[in-house]
Amino acid sequence: LTEQQQEINSLMQRKSAVDEENACLKNEFGNLNRKFEDKSQELKDTEECAQKKEERNRLVIKNVEEENKGLNICCADLLNDLEKLRKQEAQRKKEKSGNDVRIKNLETDLAETREQIKSLHTICSNLLSQVDVKQEE
């Protein structure tokens, strides 16, 4: 009987130790479970934040691409305007060059005409002198 009593006592002590260890493990499991839930929530929050940032980045990229399209159109228009202005400048240079040649020719003609007028004045003066001489005779 005492042996059985000792065995029962021993088993009771082991049961008590196992119950205590079990309580500690349950407590540790509860703590780990809370940490897991906290980390799961943190992960979920992080994923939501990353998703929102990704969406904002997509919107920013879309806006930048649209702005870039507008700027490309504006650049193309400016390049076309520049090309037109270059053509106009070339045309004006051509016209100016032609006008410069005409002005030079007109100046040459004017100088020749002045010389002719001088010559005609001289002839006229000579003729007047001859007329005066003839009249005196």
UniProtKB/TrEMBL annotation:
Keyword annotations of the record: Coiled coil
Highest rank taxon of the organism: Eukaryota
Keyword Coiled coil appears in the UniProt entry: yes
Entry coiled-coil feature ranges: 1-123
GO biological process: centriole-centriole cohesion
Gene Ontology CC: one annotated term: centriole
Name the UniProt record assigns to this protein: CNTLN protein
Gene behind the chain: Cntln
